[in-house]
User: Fold these one by one.
Assistant:
Number 1:
Amino acid sequence: MFNRVATPDQRLADPIRSSAPAAAPVQRPSPPPFAQSPAQQPMRAIDTPTSVLGQDITISGQQLVLKTKGSLLIAGQIQGDVHGESVTVGETGSVSGTITARTITVQGEVRGALKGSAVILNATSRVDGDIVKQTLAIAEGAQFDGSVRRAKDVAEVTPDLG
């Protein structure tokens, strides 16, 4: 008599192979340094350049005015006025002077006036100065000492980018 041991059929054990090429994995671009969450990001054109003043930079001078037609992220210290399309004072940043921009986001410290179409004070912000705005958002935990008023006209909160 035959003593037969059952062995699995090898044709069934091999996985089905496709002759189609494998799809390449989708790569997502990494976020830029100092990235904000999408809810915190101001709306701006994709081609707008962003300038960064790092933590190791201190800029000071009499009647100093910084101007940018793009976005500016301040992580260092500035003693002077700032004009820009979009200005963000990072958590390590400090500005002593007036900031005038379409969008102003404060995460660090400002001692001076804020003049902007949209002003956003994050939870880590410390502002000692007046705010002239069209819209204002203040997160819980933000420190603010000054007055707030709505801009009488758009020219009052329009930065001098010339």
Number 2:
Amino acid sequence: MMEKNQLRTLAREALAALSPAQYKEMGLAMLDQLRSLPEYQQATRVFCFVGTTNEPDTIPILKAIVADGKALCVPKVIGKGTFQILEIPDFSSLMPGLYHIPEPLTGRTREPGEIDLAILPCLACARTGHRLGHGWGFYDRFMAQYTGASVALCPPAVLYDEIPLEEHDQPVARILTGEELFSPGL
């Protein structure tokens, strides 16, 4: 099996080959999948990343969370490899923050245990539920403290049978690709 950095390079190349229109379409398809999940339907507080370049468009998901009467929580980077969870009334107040990732200026701080469903990004995923991030550890740290339902949004181009794992890597319960739904952690 290849090393994480080799896989990251391959995944970045595969993601860079997708167009903005494909990311937008993918985000809408993932929203349809998400809304069909019992974990989403039952959740009152949903944590979701804010998609950036070469990630599924999460703006429709963020809008849907609010429209569906759920509390919206998003990450705000506070240091290397760490973020705080902020509950916000809607996504309109998001501004580019550290690493140029859109994030809220203010919001109500929440703890991982207060979240019903976490929607996470990935650079790549394995069908086993393990995700490969960019290597900063943001979401592995979060998942080490989180015990609720979890979903990774993974473009089909970067879904693999397996990925290299380390001791700190935390799996997700479900993977949405927009085309398929995997439930390895259920």
Number 3:
Amino acid sequence: MRVAIIGGTGFIGGYLVDALLADGHMPSLLVRYGSDDKVRHRNACRVIHGELTDEAAIGSTLEDCSAVIFNVGILREEGDATFENLQLRAVERVFEAAKSNGVQRFLLMSANGVYADGTDYQRTKFLAEETVKNSGMDYTIFRPSLVFGDPRGLMEIGTQLLNDVIRLPIPAAGFTTGLRPRKDAVMMSPVHVRDVADAFTAALADSETIGRTFTLGGPESLSWAEIVKRVGRAVGKNKWVLPAPIFLVKIPVMLLDWIPNFPVTRDQLTMLADGNTADPGELEALIGRPPRAFTVEALQYLATRRAESGVRQTS
């Protein structure tokens, strides 16, 4: 079938294109002007140029499609690229275009741990879910935990930790929700990007997934400190991690997170404190195999970035 992807040129979007083509689908992508070099398998995709505010371009992207995947999300706001505009209003525009084009199947990329009274990121993701649930369409919603995997020139959590934490000659922060490092550790269930992409294609083939919300997590729940240490070990570096209670870290962050490219915002710290774990059983049942783990072996794509990151091999 022809499947539209809104958000098909980023880290996860590229893997969605791979998975759709592998299953015999024909991707139709909405692509910003000047971003053609980010399109995977360009000759196998239909590319429509336009912005998320361009209703005509969205409509053209959905033309003759049997399903649409909405896979747009940002971690921080910049100018008109706000959580409200990209994570909620854009969903509403795509929903209207789907109705106009007779597209009944809607797959939404949300996030684990979203709720109505959360941060602006969480609130808009939650309201987008509600929009889709009340649309009358055959929807499926996915809530992944921390997504990792080879970013192929883009950015994901392992690469970000390598660049912003591992290469620095200072101890890393092991975030906790309180003063007890073990009992108050921030926990995550890192999930591999290929498993996330396979969940979408599995849902397209299974009508039993209609009207359901899936939480996607890997086979291990790891503390933030252990995640940092595994990234370090993947590039041959034993990183020293110090407990960092989030309520204390928020104090300097409140003064500095206005700086462009500052590595963390106060809202991101709030979401970290909420935790981000998931039962791997949902993903395993959906894709028909155990999900990949966040192991040193699975992180070997980071080893190729030693030189650019300034990380030396250690014994």
